[in-house]
Design brief:
With 558 residues, the chain is α+β, with helices and mostly antiparallel strands. Among the domains are: 7-91, Phosphorylase Kinase, domain 1 (2-Layer Sandwich), CATH 3.30.200; 96-267, Transferase(Phosphotransferase), domain 1 (Orthogonal Bundle). Helix content is 52%, strand content 9%.
Length: 558
């Protein structure tokens, strides 16, 4: 390895290591005379049995990059060769890879992904226009660097790129990453060409907007709206077309793909239904403005005015919608126009809570907006929005088959953790109690029927106090669903923890008093739609009472 502080080529001073691979180390270096930082990639002969083959590949890669110039590609500045090492000096790309962004945030905002997609499509198109065309072949999130401001992407690592040779019937090697790679990259399916890169880009976009890694089992690319119905139908169609197994069924060039990326919203069925009215409004505004004004600034004003008007129309449509689904669709449309506005998120949550039922699809919509919602943290009403989302999961979410029976509480925990930072929030006491119960549920989810023998008496007393506080909170809440689910949870926890409550000195009469309050609360719910839930809650209460009775009997001569 190069020594920190040493100088390479008499110019580049090594500052520190910024990355390591199987065969190489990448350093941050400084050209002190030019006062500019560079990335220095070192490949050493040590430990590489086929160093000459690797070296030839690196020479081909650097020669390829040297003749390229594009804003989304790194520039090769220098190549230093000797017997033991091969050193490449290139642009230092600030930021992190998209794979790191996925790991940190999960699914990324659709509007940002489309912005990046256009840049990647443009750079691939540039590569394909070279003579001969250059096929990149390994598009994936880890090979795309994102600038610190989140606006620019840079394509890195040309280790698998090749120049297209028309006489090749098929490639002789299988290169690429499973899940992202097109079928033809694995031999026997013809030669890789521009359409191969289009497939890889489609797979990459799929991962970015869904958070689902196509390089992990079952190595499948599903329609993106199965994961998140809030995503654009137009973008879904684009990704499906990009990732067709037969290259003839994909986009045939990056120009074709770029056109659809520029007009993805026009592919939306929902957008098409409303487009005619919006177009008439826009043309009328444009015509009226043309009479009185001239100059480019007018069109910017029109664009803002048009966006504001359509945004307000979506909110009006939602308010007057006859059903919850229509409200949700219109609020989602408003969010896509103005993702920085708090109001449509708040109204969206209110609409989802109208029927006291949060479906899997509605939950997916909220998950899809996670990053956008968290970006609103400086807004005045942000804590209230987070509180409403927490309550929505706590009270309305119905776990699907295979999920933990208290998945609603676990889903609420993510938002309650955020809310815990806002100690001035008016409902912070209730939120703190809910968070405590959520933490309890989280800690016991792996083996829900085992009592934690390490719990101290102080822990048990704290839990007991929080259960009482939660009971007080739920008794004044207006949601029947929230009440019945919370009573059910309280019964379960008391039954499980009765032995520890006894050890902590909590009298049986105190536990019985809690049970009596829970039973009174359950029986006070007059809602025929919840009759089955009420019956289950009473059954749970009976089991919990019996469990507590047995715990307090132990050691009393029986």
């Amino acid at each position: 390895m190069l020594e920190i502080g040493s100088t390479v080529g008499g110019i580049y001073k090594i500052l520190n290591v910024i990355g390591k691979g199987g065969m190489s180390v990448v350093y941050l270096a400084m050209n002190e005379k030019a006062n500019k930082q560079w990335a220095v990639k070192e490949v050493r002969k040590d430990g590489i049995s086929n160093f000459e083959v690797v070296k030839q590949g690196l020479v081909a890669e650097t020669n390829m990059l040297k003749k390229l110039s594009h804003p989304n590609l790194p520039d090769i500045i220098d190549v230093i060769e000797n017997e033991d090492t091969f050193i490449i000096v290139m642009d230092y790309i600030e930021g992190n890879s998209l794979s790191k962004a996925l790991k940190e945030y999960g699914a990324l905002p659709q509007s940002q992904v489309i912005l990046w997609a256009k840049q990647l499509c443009d750079v691939l198109g540039y590569l394909h226009l070279q003579d001969p065309p250059i096929i990149y072949r390994d598009m994936k999130p880890s090979n795309v660097m994102l600038s610190p401001d989140g606006k620019k992407v840079t394509l890195i690592d040309f280790g698998t790129a090749r120049e297209y040779k028309s006489q090749n019937i098929a490639d002789t090697t299988c290169l690429g990453t499973i899940g992202y790679a097109a079928p033809e990259q694995f031999g026997g399916h013809g030669q890789t060409d521009a359409r191969t890169d289009i497939y890889c880009l489609g797979a990459t976009l799929y991962h970015l907007v869904t958070g689902q890694n196509p390089s992990e089992p079952p190595y499948e690319i599903k329609p993106i709206r199965e994961w998140n119905p809030a995503l654009s139908e137009g973008l879904e169609k684009i990704i499906i077309k990009c990732t067709q197994k037969n290259p003839d069924d994909r986009y045939q060039s990056c120009n074709e793909l770029m056109y659809d990326l520029e007009h993805y919203d026009e592919l939306d069925t929902l957008t098409r239904k409303k487009q005619s009215k919006k177009l008439r409004i826009f043309i009328a505004l444009l015509a009226a403005s043309a009479v009185f004004f001239c100059g480019g600034f007018v069109f910017q004003g029109l664009k803002r005015s048009q966006t504001d008007e359509i945004y307000r129309e979506y909110l009006t449509y939602a308010e007057n919608s006859p059903d919850t689904q229509s409200k949700i669709e219109n609020y989602m449309s408003a969010i896509e126009l103005k993702p920085e506005q708090m109001q449509p998120y708040k109204l969206l949550v209110d609409a989802m809570m109208e029927d006291d039922l949060l479906s899997k699809e509605e939950s997916s919509i909220i998950r899809g907006y996670n990053t956008r919602i968290k970006a609103l943290s400086d807004e005045k009403d942000y804590p209230q929005l987070i509180y409403d989302i927490s309550k929505m999961y706590w009270s309305c979410y119905v776990p699907i088959q295979g999920e933990n029976i208290y998945q609603n509480i676990l889903n609420a925990k993510e938002w309650l953790d955020i809310l815990s930072k806002y100690d001035k929030f008016e409902n912070i006491k209730t939120a703190t109690v809910m968070k405590y119960i959520a933490d309890y549920t989280d800690s016991s989810r792996k083996n829900i029927n085992q009592i934690d023998s390490s719990k101290s008496p102080e822990d048990s007393l704290e839990l007991y106090d929080n259960l009482k506080s939660l009971l007080e909170f739920v008794e004044i809440d207006t949601s029947d669903v929230l009440r019945i689910k919370t009573y059910d949870l309280l019964s379960y926890i008391i039954g499980q923890e009765a032995t520890d409550f006894k050890k902590a000195g909590i009298e049986k009469s105190e536990v019985d008093s809690l049970f009596d309050s829970i039973q009174t609360g359950i029986e006070s719910i007059d809602n025929s739609n919840l009759s089955e839930n009420i019956e289950k809650a009473l059954t749970q209460l009976g089991s919990a009472k019996q469990s507590a009775e047995n715990s307090y009997k132990v050691g009393k001569g029986g």
